[in-house]
Every structure is written in C-alpha cells, then in structure tokens.
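Let us practice reading a record.
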Amino acid sequence: MACTQTLAGISRDCLRNVGGIRTVWIANYADIDSMDYIEDGLFSSPNMVVGKVFFEYQFARGAASLSSTYQVNAENGTKYVQNDLVLTFNRMDTTKRKAILALLGAELVIVAEDNNGNRWVLGANHQGPNFGPAVVGADSDADGLTGTAYADRNGYSVTFHWVAPEMPWGMYGTPPTA
C-alpha cells in the first residue's frame, strides 16, 4: 500500500525574516481551561481557569531559540517532533534560581514569540484528552554558570524539551497575563 499525502508546495518568501525569540509566556498546564483552534495549526488565545494567567519571562536579546526536529524511524514505524526551547538569563541570583526550579517541577504550556511576530505554542495541540501533552519541566535541563573572565556570561540556561506528534502550532492573540 502506498503512503500518499496532499502536497501544496511552498512559495519563495521575499519578506524580512529574522531569527531568535523575543518573548516567552509560561503557565501551568492545569491553569488553562481550554484552547480553541481557529484552523489547522493555529490556536486562539487560551481560555484560563478563573484567576490564573500566563507569566512573562524576559531575557537578553539574542539569548533564546526554538528548534523543532522531525524524527522518523521507518523500522519501528514511528514519527515525532523533538522541540527544544532554550532560554538564557543573565546574572545568577536567588530569585531567578527559585523561578527556574519552579518551572522544572511543573507541567507547562509555553508560548514563544519569535522576532518575526509569530507565536508558537509548546505543550498543546489538537490531540490528547484535553488539548495535548504538556511540557514537563522534569524532562528539561538547566544550568548556572559564573564564567571565568570578566567578559564571560554569568547566568542560567534552561532548555525545555517537548516531544509531540507535530511541530508547534501557532497562536493568534496574546496570552492572558496579570
């Protein structure tokens, strides 16, 4: 039996395009009541449990990235996407350390806005019992480095890993914040 897909092609994009992540908002998975999708691959802003919001995480310009790697194993008949969101926070301090530890102990939904103005949702898709598998903080990595020389970075780096059946969906609108 042949495996076929509906193909549509991709046109050349002549618009400005820049790399990197501008802003990240994070909420506890349980704090989101639902996520409605507008069309295939695009969510509207999340509907939150009463009194719950997303929190914005700020970092230096050029200190965050999102990568999505499509993985296929033909022998096992499996396919998935490995998504990695890397955030770097300058200057080690107790407040940041506590915030990072809280993230690593939670199930999360993350919205990452790239420098082109596109918002990407990790921890949600149209599949699953509610709105998709959460980003599990315990599956993520974090480190703190003091640096050696004066010009070295002193700070933290956090990498959130999210395995999903497809690449992150986009989001129309802004996550609800305090």
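A brief commentary: Helices lie at 94-104.
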